[in-house]
Amino acid sequence: MYMRKELEGARYSNSALLDNNSNLQVEIDSLNNHIRVITVQNEELTKELDQFVQANEAIRMRLDRKARVQEIRARNDQQLAHSIGVVHESKSPIRHVVVERSPLRR
Q: For residues 28 and 34, what is the distance between their CA atoms, to the nearest angstrom?
């Protein structure tokens, strides 16, 4: 009789452990599925972030080029102003031509 009670107890315990194991396996499967979903989302977000980074780099390069063009234009304007100043300074002064009338025309 004692052995039967032990056997019944072991069967009950075994059944409870199998149910618990089954529940844990369902939870593991659910978590693995969730991991797969999160992994796919992570890959999509990584691709989107890479696109943002590429767009940002393209914009930065355009802005850097624009700043460089503005810098070159400013330097050219300064050189042009200096050259115009040098030309004006090097010109001969304008002479006023005095037209003398001939003594006969008076």
A: 10
Distance in angstroms (rounded) separating the CA atoms of residues 18 and 13: 9
Distance CA 35, CA 42 (A): 10
Question: For the residues of 34-73, what is the DSSP string, one character each?
Answer: HHHHHHHHHHHHHHHHHHHHHHHHHHHHHHHHHHHHHHHH
| Residue ranges for the chain with pLDDT beneath 50 | none
Predicted confidence at residue 27, as pLDDT, reads: 97
pLDDT of residue 79: 94
Which pair of structure tokens corresponds to residue 104?
């006969």
**pLDDT at 29 (0 to 100):** 97
